[in-house]
Amino acid sequence: MKSYPLLDVRITTPTLELRGATDNLLDELADAVRAGKTHADPAPYDDPMSFYETDPDLRVAKWLRAIWRGRGKVGPEAWRLYFVVVVDGHPVGMQDLIGIDFPTFGTVTSFSWLADDQRGRGLGHEMRAAILHLAFDGLGSKEASSDAFVDNHGSNAISRGLGYEPNGSDWATRQDEPALLNRWRLTRDNWEQGRRDDIQLHNIEACHAGLPLL
């Protein structure tokens, strides 16, 4: 997309690709959202979350509006990059990268979801590894964080496997009920120890031109 080059940023690994979340890709992915393939038990998302909407069409509308709002915020105080996870040419989920006061702290966090019929194949680990490569190698991040409810065993295992260290706990609500979160922290030094050479960044210059970085 010539007028918004951040959407042309891509990250590729041997098994998947993260593509900038264009409206065309989101439209393809909307079928999974409408069908409820974002759901899991126990629920992995804190409040507020459009995926908790019970009406399928309204769920898609709220999800899209949230992405459009977030896509338009690109400032030093906050930015968010939205990527669609593509496997064998088909969109199967999303992987986001978020910076808060990035020029000051150089830290990022991530958010992701994967369609329920794609789980258990190692894709969650691979898409997180891909977004971390963008964060550290592409954007010069100093540190990455993640959090997950204590009963979200998959997300916690991914963080542990990628070299994150436990960083305390916190409370959040999900569907209006309190739930405990594990917090995780990955330093640049720890990421470097497991750095991969089979992840490729494409059109990364758009990030340097369009994002307030260090």
From TrEMBL:
<dbReference type="InterPro" id="IPR000182">
    <property type="entry name" value="GNAT_dom"/>
</dbReference>
<dbReference type="InterPro" id="IPR016181">
    <property type="entry name" value="Acyl_CoA_acyltransferase"/>
</dbReference>
<keyword id="KW-0808">Transferase</keyword>
<feature type="domain" description="N-acetyltransferase">
    <location>
        <begin position="38"/>
        <end position="187"/>
    </location>
</feature>
<dbReference type="GO" id="GO:0008999">
    <property type="term" value="F:protein-N-terminal-alanine acetyltransferase activity"/>
</dbReference>
<protein>
    <submittedName>
        <fullName>GNAT family N-acetyltransferase</fullName>
    </submittedName>
</protein>
<dbReference type="InterPro" id="IPR051908">
    <property type="entry name" value="Ribosomal_N-acetyltransferase"/>
</dbReference>
<dbReference type="GO" id="GO:0005737">
    <property type="term" value="C:cytoplasm"/>
</dbReference>
<dbReference type="GO" id="GO:1990189">
    <property type="term" value="F:protein N-terminal-serine acetyltransferase activity"/>
</dbReference>
<dbReference type="Pfam" id="PF13302">
    <property type="entry name" value="Acetyltransf_3"/>
</dbReference>
